[in-house]
Amino acid sequence: MGKDEFFNDLAESIKDGIQRNYRNLVFIQSKDSYLKMKSVLKLYLSIKDNVSIVYGFHPWIKEAKDRMRELREELEDYRFEDVDYSNAEWYMGNTYDVVIMDMTDNFQPNNVGRMVELCRGGGLIIIYTDNLKENKLFKNSIMRDGKVLSFYEDRFLRKLSEHEGIFIINGDVFQSRTFTGQVESPPERKVESKNAPSEIHELCKTVDQDKALEGLYFIMSSGKRSISITAPRGRGKSAVVGLFLASLSSEDRKKPLKVYVTSPSIAGASQIFEFMVKGLENLGVEYSVKKNSNVISSVNTESMKVSYIPPDAAYSEEGDILVVDEAAALGIAYIDMISRTWTKTIMVTTVHGYEGSSKAFSKYLRKLADNRKIKLKNISMDYPLRYAKGDPVEKWLYDALLLDAEPELPEGDLSILSYEEIPKEELFTDDSKLRQAYGIMVTAHYRNNPDDLMIMADGVHHIIRVLSSSSYYVSVAQLSEEGGMDDDKVELAINGGIFDGDLIPDRVIKHVRIKEFGKLHGWRVVRIATAQEIQDKGLGSEMLRMIIEEAEDNGLDWVGSSFMGDPKVLRFWIKNGFIPVHVSPKRNEKLGDFPVVVVKPISEKAKKIVSIAATVLKEKLLNTLHDVYFNMNPEIARLLINGTGAHKEIDINPIYLDKVLAFVKGTSPYESSADGIHMLVLKYFWDSKRKWSIMPDEEEFLIAKVIQGKPWGNVSAVLSSSRSQVTEGIYTSVAEMLNRYYGLTIDSPLGVMISQHGDLNERMHLD
């Protein structure tokens, strides 16, 4: 195709897009891509008036900044905003006519996903780069020993050619595919029953938003309730929550309603606050706001106080409603904890989004609601706000980034399975296989993003294994080759340096201080997943067994994994013989969990190091759960402590034992005997040779109260138990431990005598 024909096609397609409210995209790969980008932009500006432009780039790279500044000067008569890719989420509520992505210095799928969604119907997206595969920041971070693959970029380029509404300039070669499909007009808006004021419904743009607004009033009825709002990006789900909060502000109350909003970042919650303010202004309700980093962090009216709090702060705050934006990104362990302490929660999450798939999350939420006797309402939203339904660029985006990967339901005899490696060339050139394999990962795990797929595709040290039944994959694992570090890298790790790759050796070296582990070779299981419909049948464990066998055959020293602390996931690894060796001292700010590292040692040297690491971890937890890990879920703490298998003999002097006995006999309150109880509990958890155990819930009571030092009310809330259940559980478990270890019972006499117990000074190590 000639250049003139290309630009004629593009011009006609832009005009058609403006008329039918869909978007077009131009991809430019050329040494003079910047100049070609300006030619494309000039064409659009000649067709449409009053154009708004957003420009994505990396501001710390001088050449990128120079290009942006030059373009800004040339477009001084237009609304022009520049966006640092790392801050793109701060702009997710904005809409522009033209979105320009400078990918000269970096190509990163997450950036593409976020920036494309800023473009409105009738708009144009321009991606320009010199070469998609060479000298890119994110790609270089995937490199191992100077090697990196390009399977992801090859597929990305292929998808550009396959879809309509996409125009490609590759050097001097021009290719256009105008959109010939149909788009859907929005259905007529009719609101049957109005709980919300008409002034609020005026701000809704779709029928879905109207219905969601009315549906949110479900939360205001009595009892423990939760609402789950799921939708693809750009459907206005966060906005409608903000409008709902504004509508509640119009109601008179004796006592102001207290609402907290949390999300992985304050930027992620910005839409809720912005639309609450819009709603209040439409209602004529007086309000005041506070801002953090130029983003609204709280809105107060006479009848309501709405504030943003970080995810971990939601554990201890008290209020009437908790709104969790991008709930799937925060994970099921987090949702489990807040569902214990909050009576009313609104969960907002993205279907096929960049923060994770909501399918696994929604399934979990239904199960949680049943177990906790929570009344749950699901609200889904489908019609896009910014552009017409059927938009060709959205279709391309979902295909290119595999945002809508859904595996087929496995069929046939699951007792006959094949364990095999999938060559990446085969996987990334066969969409049916890729969608099946990656779809299992996405739908089984709630935390995935487009960057993950590129790492899997392009990392030479990332390998893929599957369990298959006939023509279907049933389980998939992504493995990363780690270890074999040179001396310089080991020294960098021990001295606190940061580098890409070798995650497990790095954590062991930094926190256990044993440098030899860096020399060992192992596999880190990045992801392991089984198709949702056939989970809990032992297929994941079978997959793991085969991975370990292969690792042994290959002479590896260990197999391990790193993941966000979640009870179900942690139980899976411990059940399969993996030992916890590290827990991050810092909770992941965005995801709300403590990252955990587990290892299954194979070689003798690995077994020795892992044994030491497990002992160090157990000591660290028991010594710092009251401080560093105060907000750790007691169930996670219990699994980690018991999972280490580390043993140590603990002696308790007679005075402290007598204090415990006095507590058991009821002559001393808990607070007066707490020091003795603490020592007895430490003895119990350090004793990995005992053939008996107290109940798991009793262990969690002891961890929360005795080891973490939580107030009684907090223990009850966190563990969803009444005060009487907690006190009874602690009493029963302490009495059992005292009897089993020392033969002391409620009938044993109180008091310590020197003649009975020997030299107390010596036994207490006193001078």
From TrEMBL:
Biological process terms from the Gene Ontology for this record are: rRNA acetylation involved in maturation of SSU-rRNA; tRNA acetylation; tRNA wobble cytosine modification
The answer on whether this UniProt entry bears the keyword Thylakoid reads no
- Residues recorded as binding acetyl-CoA, renumbered to this chain, are 528-530
Spell out the subcellular localization from the entry.
Cytoplasm
Positions of the N-acetyltransferase domain:
462-603
Q: What is its main location?
A: cytoplasm
Q: Which SUPFAM superfamilies match?
A: Acyl-CoA N-acyltransferases (Nat), P-loop containing nucleoside triphosphate hydrolases
User: Any idea of its EC number?
Assistant: 2.3.1.193
Q: Reaction(s) catalyzed by this protein?
A: cytidine(34) in elongator tRNA(Met) + acetyl-CoA + ATP + H2O = N(4)-acetylcytidine(34) in elongator tRNA(Met) + ADP + phosphate + CoA + H(+); a cytidine in mRNA + acetyl-CoA + ATP + H2O = an N(4)-acetylcytidine in mRNA + ADP + phosphate + CoA + H(+); a cytidine in tRNA + acetyl-CoA + ATP + H2O = an N(4)-acetylcytidine in tRNA + ADP + phosphate + CoA + H(+); a cytidine in RNA + acetyl-CoA + ATP + H2O = an N(4)-acetylcytidine in RNA + ADP + phosphate + CoA + H(+)
Q: Which InterPro entries match?
A: Acyl_CoA_acyltransferase (IPR016181), GNAT_dom (IPR000182), P-loop_NTPase (IPR027417), TcmA/NAT10_helicase (IPR007807), TmcA/NAT10/Kre33 (IPR032672), TmcA/NAT10_N (IPR013562), tRNA_acetyltr_TmcA (IPR024914)
What are the entry keywords?
Answer: Acyltransferase, ATP-binding, Cytoplasm, Nucleotide-binding, RNA-binding, Transferase, tRNA processing, tRNA-binding
Name of one Pfam family that matches? TmcA_N
Domain of life per record: Archaea
Gene Ontology molecular functions: 18S rRNA cytidine N-acetyltransferase activity; ATP binding; tRNA binding; tRNA cytidine N4-acetyltransferase activity
What enzyme category does the UniProt record give?
transferase
One cellular component term (GO) for this entry is: cytoplasm
Q: Where does ATP bind?
A: 209, 386
On whether Metal-binding is a keyword of this UniProt record, the answer is: no
What family does the Swiss-Prot or TrEMBL record give for this protein? Belongs to the TmcA family.
Functionally, this protein is described as follows:
Catalyzes the formation of N(4)-acetylcytidine (ac(4)C) at the wobble position of tRNA(Met), by using acetyl-CoA as an acetyl donor and ATP (or GTP).
In Swiss-Prot or TrEMBL terms, this protein is called tRNA(Met) cytidine acetyltransferase TmcA
Species this protein is from:
Sulfuracidifex metallicus DSM 6482 = JCM 9184
Q: What is the taxonomic lineage of the source species?
A: Archaea, Thermoproteota, Thermoprotei, Sulfolobales, Sulfolobaceae
